[in-house]
Sequence to fold (235 residues):
Amino acid sequence: MRAVREFNVVPAVPAALAPLSELAFNLHWTWDRETQQLFESLDPGLWKSTGRDPLRLLAAISAARWAALAGNPDIVSATNAASERLRDAVEAPRWFQGRRDSPLGLVAYFSPEFGISETLPQYSGGLGILAGDHLKAASDLGVPLTAVGLLYAEGYFRQRLNADGVQEERYPPLDPLGLAMHTTDVQVTLEIAGEQVRINVWKVQVGRVPLYLLDTNVEGNSPEAAAITNRLYGG
Fold:
């Protein structure tokens, strides 16, 4: 169970660069090269050392560095331009909005994994990458799609070779509050194998497409129920 977390006190993003937080929480940046370049320009060394993860990057920048960035007109201008691109990507009419004769109201897309970015380790291979690309394409085309998947507490495994040359795997636990997602007020209860299982719902924004991830690692569930969303392909 997620009973213990580490809390880090980090400098607040300056008002002049406030859009950076919104840009980091919407995974549209994963296929917007200019926004990736913006994040890298904040601190190239940190961008690399944090695994090219915008949230980790913003948390790692020092107060002194933030002050310098806020006073850099090129950085401020690039931040505002990226914010405008995101707003356009999320709100502007796209291909689908021009199909006035379409009877389609909403598409529900279900997948056990979504490969959107390494910063959201919730996929294993080709199926996940395909599902992630579908969400990105739906966003670009303006298709009214809502995606539903599972939030795996341990994401995907890390591999290494031991002294005997045998492959070993480890599953580092994930803290969803450190990922580009938000908790929702939604909790559902579903009977599984005779047990009433509580399920929390997390929301990830992929451009204009919402992705809802179901999480059974909830207080009050049995260890067996909590482990349902423990690992992708863990069985």
About this structure: Residues 73-91 form the longest helix (19 residues). The chain has two domains: 15-91, 98-229.
